[in-house]
Amino acid sequence: MKIVVMAGGRGTRIEKINSELPKPMIPVNGKPVLEYQLEIFREQGYKDFIFVTGYLSDKIIHYFGDGSRFGTRIEYYIESEPLGTAGALYDLRDRLKEDFILILGDIIADIDLDRLIRAHKRYGGLVTLFTHPNDHPYDSGIVMADSDMRVIKWIAKEDERGWYKNRVNAGIHVISPGVFDACRAFGLFQERRKLDLDRDILKNLIASGDVYAYDSPEYVKDMGTPERYEQVSADLRAGLVSRRNLKNKQKAIFLDRDGTINQYVGFLRNIDDFALTDTASEAIRLIHQAGYLAIVITNQPVIARGEMTFEQLEEVHNKMETLLGRDGAFLDKIYFCPHHPHKGFAGEIAELKFECECRKPKPGLISQAARDFNIDLKKSWMIGDSQNDIMAGKAAGCGTALIGDLGSITEKADFYGSDLLDCVKQCVRAGENAS
Asked: Average pLDDT of the chain?
């Protein structure tokens, strides 16, 4: 499989870091960004590269040559004029007869490539986007997908947006060669010209149903601004980049929703009643800073009881993600149980009224998250405000922390805290002491 790296950009936003090199050659902790990319692909068996270069291309070619000293094979396509993030594909189409990966050249990443490629084959579309939540969704393009992960809408930074799921295109794509025929059908790839991958190609393909999203919490971050450059440098030094590869065991802090992340109002049936607690955003930022995944585990029997639809629940969760994102915080995944074991409610959904394995205090959703993200449950925690949260965490093999101190609780938690932030701090300290 060939790896196409879009490395032609100048990087005007990061020129104050280094104005004498093309952006993909700027050293991060002493090594060019492109070299990090070569390493993550090569170490997983992917060694055939095409570098699309433009600005100061001679510096890239001089450093990497044919790739042999890096254990890879590198071809070059040199743009005589800026062609955007996809214009070069017109001339490269005859060299891309099989599925290929396209990655932007200013990205530091470490992901399980086999896992991504398997998802692309399973979806059966023309393009699979690597998507993830980030800490600045308010100034990012948002990707909306249906339950089958088929992309249904792309919200640009300048578009009006309501509540939205924090799902951002990370700049890594698996593309099948059939994309060229599809693009010709709507008037692209008739000639060489400047093309934007997102705006000109992916948005047009969405209507055909051939674009899919692959969500992952793995580390992918561009270093295109001085602030992000400093963050990427620090994350590399701390070892966070490689640890987040899903080939490695992860650790997570699982979070109840109502009374933990948002203010408790009983059964929340109206989106207007949703409000974050005072410390939720800071607590979730701390979870990620400490190297944990932040995953919500919540019972939502209002679905089975007919008091809220799946669509309304999704909008509540979109509001939660939007509000957190405004504070620079994000969730890696939300798992919810829509079932309820007791019958007799007006308007209830009969097919959802049964004893399930996912409703807390059972650990089914935690176990599902562990399978999905290769989580070591013994190094993970469950935080909530009820006995069911503590019982579910213990049943899954996690440590536990309870918000408040319920005098009648029979399952004692490992820690008790006044709010979510207090509990997270105690769990993080305990994890550091254990290691």
From this structure: 92
